[in-house]
Design goal:
Helix 2 crosses helix 11, helix 10 packs antiparallel against helix 11 (240-298) and helix 12 (306-358) packs parallel to helix 15. This protein has 16 helices and no strands. The longest helix is centred in the middle third of the chain and has 59 residues, at 240-298. Helix content is 78%, strand content 0%. Keywords: Membrane, Transmembrane, Transmembrane helix. The chain crosses the membrane at residues 33-51, 78-99, 338-358, 367-388, 446-466.
């Protein structure tokens, strides 16, 4: 997957689901695992010089240890701990995506992600409109926006270059957001998602746009990293053997760094794609449920019709199906992975902050640390908040179940019993949410408790830092 950076998310999920178990698949990812274990052993040897530099004077024989020792003011033992934790995140992602634990019901493993990222993207390209229709839509949109701009901004509209640029940008932006390049009827009514057949057009569009955007960001990030390595790399001029060794080490480092970036992208983006699918489907079901209830209220207490009861049955079945997807994926894939990811990520972010607060480091290095800390925090917090929002959407319907029960006739007893059971499960049953493993449910309350734990861990690690500097 290393070199498929233009369409990484699509190709990665396609590779994981369709090629899992093949000889090539196992060889490739066992090689990834071996290289990461080599990286871990390498870091362990370097860490020995911080334990006892006189007993383990590795900086005399190893150029990497020498580099760390010469820059030990910045690359101190806490920085080495960050490296260990980053390596552990890489190993965790390899384990989660490429070597998942086997279960009896593995048919659904990663199928939610596959449906969101691969199948939905395929349906998008199958539903592409003709070039003539696309040009017609863009032309009509440009004309409408230009007339609106002239009405709202008469003075600016007289400056032709500015008006054209503003209108052209709005046309380009909205043409993507509103999917002018696809046949909407074909995309929404015929080329549906398999596991989320009632996902809205808007939700599916956002999934496609997010995948395309994430792949572009991933591609640009890889190019920038390659350029950085090319300009910052210096050959050792001592001997041919040192040059060869350094080339091998650098190649392994770049490969593992790419794999770490791709693993982080895969983890964060798959979570966000899943959020879009669940949120889209649940929003549609909740809106349908509320519209049935409001229609009865606005018609002077008119009873629910037979057609509405059929729609209520559909909502109930789809709600149960989506709940099963969440609980199944959480149990078999995400629960333990998110648990270990949280345990590893919190110390990484805190240690980076402590490095910035306590250490007197150069401005360039400080900027790099700030960027790493911010990116790490964003890629961790936003996906977790998205999953918490999914749990909130699942339980949103319970506020309307009791009023709906009063509107149902007695001859719709089966529907009343179904929603009575659903209300009981939502109120007192197992929380329909992803989990942090043993830490609890991934809800907004769970995130708040995790934030309190983060603050406690921050002061604890800061205490270690201050104690280290006082000695």
């Amino acid at each position: 997957m290393l070199f498929k950076i233009k369409t990484f998310l699509y190709d990665a999920l396609k590779h994981i689901v369709e090629e899992n178990g093949t000889i090539q698949y196992r060889r490739l990812h066992y090689a990834d695992l071996v290289l990461y274990l080599y990286w871990l052993i390498r870091a362990l040897f370097i860490s020995l010089i911080y334990i006892d530099p006189e007993r383990f004077p590795l900086y005399r024989y190893d150029y990497a240890s020498l580099y760390f020792w010469d820059h030990r003011r910045i690359l101190n033992k806490f920085f080495v701990i960050i490296i260990f934790l980053l390596i552990m995140i890489g190993l965790l992602c390899i384990k989660t995506f490429y070597f998942p634990k086997q279960h009896d019901d593995d048919e659904l493993r990663f199928q939610v992600l596959y449906d969101c990222i691969v199948h939905n993207t395929d349906q998008y390209y199958k539903s592409r409109d003709t070039d003539e229709n696309i040009a017609m839509k863009l032309s009509q949109r440009y004309e409408n926006y230009h007339q609106q701009f002239v009405r709202n901004h008469r003075l600016l509209s007289q400056i032709t270059p500015i008006a054209k640029r503003v209108v052209s940008f709005k046309v380009w932006r909205d043409s993507w957001l509103e999917m002018d390049r696809v046949d909407k009827i074909l995309f929404e009514k015929i080329n549906k998602m398999k596991l989320f057949p009632y996902a809205t057009f808007k939700g599916r569009s956002y999934i496609v746009l997010f995948i395309l955007f994430a792949d572009r960001v991933n591609y640009i990030g890889h190019l920038l990293y390659i350029l950085y390595q090319l300009f910052s790399y210096e050959l050792v001029k001592n001997s041919l053997w040192m040059k060869i060794t350094l080339m091998i080490e650098t190649t392994i480092f770049i490969y593992n760094a790419f794999l770490l970036i791709q693993s982080a992208m895969l983890l964060a983006c798959t979570i966000m794609s899943t959020y879009q699918a669940f949120h889209s489907g649940l929003s549609y079901l909740n809106q349908m449920f509320v519209s049935i209830l409001d229609k009865s209220r606005h018609h002077n207490g008119k009873q629910i019709t037979r057609k509405d009861v059929l729609n209520l049955g559909l909502i109930y079945r789809q709600h149960n199906k989506l709940s099963y997807y969440v609980l199944h994926d959480d149990k078999n894939t995400w629960s333990q992975s998110l648990y270990y990811y949280a345990l590893i990520s919190i110390p990484i972010n805190i240690t980076l902050l402590c490095e910035l607060i306590v250490e007197d480091i150069p401005a360039q290095t400080e900027f790099v640390f700030i960027v790493i800390a911010v990116v790490h925090a964003i890629t961790g917090v936003i996906p977790f908040m998205a999953l918490a929002h999914v749990s909130s959407a699942f339980h949103k319907i319970r506020d309307h179940i009791l009023p709906m029960q009063l509107k149902l006739k007695r001859n719709y007893l089966r529907t009343k019993l179904k929603y009575d059971d659903l209300y009981e499960r939502l109120m007192h049953g197992k929380k329909i949410a992803f989990t942090f493993g043993y830490l609890g449910n991934l809800t907004f309350r769970g995130l708040f408790e995790a934030f309190l734990s983060y603050i406690a861990a921050f002061f604890l690690i800061m205490g270690f830092y201050m104690k280290e500097h006082s000695t």
